[in-house]
Amino acid sequence: MRKKIDCRDQPSEMNCTLVISGEEDEVLRAATEHAVSVHGHADSAELREQIKAAMKNEVPQHA
Question: Out of the domains of life, which is the source (predicted)?
Fold first, then answer.
């Protein structure tokens, strides 16, 4: 199942609207890089666990 994470679900002074979706390992990697480079977080095991906990299953959209 694909996962997603949405910056709008996290407290932020930047009002970031980025949504990342894909396989869990892809989302974790991209969201960690985004959190470090854009939001100034330190890359740590704790950050990665917080990101994993915030991931949601992506609901497939049918046309």
Answer: Bacteria
The pLDDT, as a whole number, for residue 27 is: 98
Distance CA 27, CA 3 (A): 7
Measured from the Cβ of residue 15, the count of other Cβ atoms closer than 10 Å reads 7
Q: CA 12, 13, 17, 20 torsion: positive or negative?
A: negative
Q: Which helix (H) or strand (E) holds 9?
A: none
Q: What is the mean pLDDT of residues 5-12?
A: 88
6 token code pair: 């949405």
Average pLDDT over residues 10-35: 93
